[in-house]
Specification:
alpha/beta, Rossmann fold, 3 domains, seven-stranded mixed β-sheet, two-stranded antiparallel sheet, 16 helices, flat
Length: 473
């Protein structure tokens, strides 16, 4: 499946629909509304307003669609749900256009306002719904006929797994699941030889972290036996931060916490474990805020970067920036950047956390850490999509391995982008050992469970206060 191409198709369809709706509506206003107003035919002249509308009105619609997540999970669209969404968003968008662009139109009667709103709404819904309906119908046809599918891993190896696999493979219309293999539960009954005849055996639970990226898994279906239910928490914990769609067979419903939803009416009965942290529109706004604020910070405070770069270079031997690998969103490694605050040989004996009286920290570095200025190069990481302004602080794999031994739920932090600042850092500060990292973890877990734009704003305000007051630990 080519997801980028599918997104481009939707973008082209939505832009074309918006342009067509505006072009016809503009002609309607001239031919009908303005003619009724002046009592004589008004020549159809395509003026500057018309051409500006052709450019900016489609962009306006694309922005709204982006914010509500229209182009997310582009192959997993319900035609009925999409139609309802199109009606709702078209209503909101048309009202915005009316009050910002059309309210001052020349009209003969207040009824012309209703006619303008109604006409623009019907045109936009008609074209958008038709174009999207065609794309969705073609996609569903290809999925049902197994021309395209989502790489799916089956967790389970006994009767339930075999029964589910046989049922889904025997459907006349595919649900879109393209099974690539199965894994069995550790220390249990091994795996079904009959299942192995039809589906590759890829390993056990401990192998998931390698299987998922290697096989490009998009969806996981858990079909374990009743005597294996004690492993459900471990399984979900292992899968949760990979950004996968997780489904289970119905008889496991009563042992699952969190919200769940049915995934299909006509296919095999499955329940999806819904772990959506923020509404899609909030996620989109959060990302737009990240990029906008980071760009402003990099541009407006470029003189601060220059001064700090010179100061770091003069104050001690070594490079200006310190870059090393951290583990981020969905467990993917990335290079984080800071102004160097320690001596160049600070970790010659291996990774080590800093402490209050750490002799490895330079005098300038101590000041930078106190006011958090050593972190500001990470605005670059934010723009690149590796980090967010607010989110759990990323750690090195060396320390993550130690934390997980004491707190396996640490993996939940990888469900979101790591941040320049976090609630854990605001409330607790820098951790000096693994025990303190585990203690700080509870703040980050609570943040993830309560993520919102409002919470992010509060954390940013507290962070600014810490910087201004120099209270950083």
């Amino acid at each position: 499946m080519n997801k980028k191409l599918q997104v481009i198709k939707y973008l082209f369809a939505d832009i074309s629909a918006a342009m067509l709706a505006w072009a016809i509506f503009y002609s309607f206003r001239k031919i009908y509304i303005e003619t009724a107003k002046f009592g004589k035919p008004v020549p159809l002249v395509y003026d500057q307003q018309y051409f500006w509308g052709l450019v900016f009105i489609p962009l306006f619609w694309i922005l709204i669609y982006y914010l509500i997540g229209t182009y997310k999970d582009i192959y997993r669209k319900s035609r009925l749900k999409e139609l309802g969404q199109t009606f709702l968003i078209s209503t909101i968008g048309v009202l915005i256009i009316f009050f910002t662009l059309l309210l001052d139109d020349e009209i003969g009667s207040y009824r012309n306002y209703y006619q303008s709103i109604g006409t623009l709404f019907l045109l936009h819904v008609g074209f958008t719904g038709t174009f999207r309906g065609i794309l969705s119908s073609v996609t569903n046809y290809r999925i049902h006929n197994r021309q395209i599918g989502f790489n799916t891993l089956l967790v389970g190896s006994n009767e339930n797994a075999l029964k589910l696999f046989s049922e889904m493979e025997g459907q006349s219309k595919s649900s879109g699941n393209k099974f690539v293999g199965f894994v069995h539960i550790e220390n249990k009954n091994g795996f079904s030889q009959e299942l192995k005849k039809n589906l590759p055996h890829l390993g056990e639970l401990s192998d998931l972290k390698n299987i998922i990226p290697n096989k490009k898994i998009e969806e996981v279906i858990i079909a374990i036996e009743s005597f294996e239910h004690e492993n459900i928490g471990k399984i979900v914990n292992e899968l949760d931060y990979h950004g996968l769609i997780i489904k289970v067979i119905p008889d496991m419903y009563d042992i699952l916490s969190g919200s769940v939803k049915m995934t299909s009416i006509f296919g095999a009965p499955l329940i999806e474990i819904s772990r959506e942290i923020m509404p899609t529109w909030e996620q989109s706004v959060k990302r737009m805020m990240d990029i906008t604020i980071s760009l402003i910070a990099l541009i407006l405070f470029s003189w601060v970067y220059i001064i700090l770069a010179i100061a770091v270079k003069i104050s001690s031997k070594g490079p200006i920036f310190y870059s090393h690998e951290r583990i981020g969103w969905h467990g993917k490694p990335f290079m984080i950047h800071k102004f160097r605050s320690m001596t160049v040989d600070a970790e010659k004996s291996g990774p080590a956390l800093s402490s209050k009286q750490d002799i490895r920290i330079t005098p300038l570095g101590r000041f930078l850490r106190k006011v958090r200025l050593d972190e500001i190069p990470q605005f670059y990481n934010v723009i690149m999509g590796e980090m967010s302004l607010v989110g759990p602080r990323p750690e090195r794999q060396f320390f993550i391995d130690q934390i997980i031994q004491k707190a396996p739920h640490y993996k939940h932090l990888h469900k979101v982008r790591p941040g320049i600042t976090s609630w854990g850092q605001v409330k607790y500060g820098y951790a000096e050992n693994v025990d303190e990292m585990v203690h700080r973890l509870k703040y980050d877990i609570i943040y993830i469970e309560n993520m919102s734009l409002g919470v992010d704003l509060k954390i940013l305000i507290y962070t600014i206060l810490i910087v201004v007051q120099g209270r950083g630990k």
